[in-house]
Amino acid sequence: MKKTALLLLALLTGIVNAQTNEKSLLWKISGNGLSKPSYLFGTIHITCDATLSDKVKKALDNTEQLCLELDMDDASMQGQMLNSMMMKDGVTMKSLVTEADFKIVDAFLTNNVGYSAEMLNPVKPFMITTMLYPKMLGCEMQSVEAELMKIAKTQNEETIGLETVAEQLAVFDAIPYQEQMNELVITAKDNMQRDKTELTQMMALYKTENVEEMVAFTEKSANVMTSKYSDILLKNRNQNWISRIDKIAKSKPTFFGVGAAHLGGEQGVIVLLRKAGFKVEAVN
Hints:
By secondary structure, this protein is α/β, with parallel strands linked by helices. The chain has one domain. 53% of the residues lie in helices and 10% in strands. It has helices at residues 2-18, 54-61, 77-83, 99-112, 125-131, 133-137, 144-154, 165-174, 177-189, 193-208, 211-219, 224-227, 230-251, 269-275; strands at residues 26-30, 38-43, 65-68, 159-161, 254-259, 279-282. Strand 1 (26-30) and strand 2 form a beta hairpin.
């Protein structure tokens, strides 16, 4: 009897997980006490083409507010981010590398962001990496989140966040500064070639709408910031979001937009919402 129960549990778990194999960035959330459906959409934070599909626009029409990872309408957000950019305990980039490597990073940053490593010395290396994204992209940078916000604004709907700026940036205190700096040195030494290749591959993968492959891609990344610390960057945050999504969706029909890599996998938002009692279906 016990073996039968375990087998049944394994089969049911397999079914729950297998259902995420459908290729879609947009998912309908219903059941579990919701009076009207909400929607879950996988975004890409930077891209060359942030055009929204008709099905996404329709889902925005059918909801009453937009919820992103952060409340990007918050006027205080920029100030909060600036306050969280510095490394703690007096750590600097110069203290994390050899003199030779610091000179390489210094020349690279001066050339690509217009600020020397000396000027940016106390800033978290990951934050400096984000300054390089426009250069890595090779096109005019666009944002899916910005496009979602434009529509929400025209519909006179509020934009809210799943987590605070402090919560999101605390992630980069949890990832060792040494690891962050090691990756920045690699980026400087190969003049962003590795990062450009991975970003191009991710943008192409995003167009396939295969959320499972996106999770696998991040876990295999050559950049240890992405692959080694996926628990900190993705899984832990996914767990934290479920009760918040539950509360928000029950307050009013909501369009949730989070990074697409958060959706798939056994610890992804889709599976976790199903385990919490919601029906989550791909919209195609």
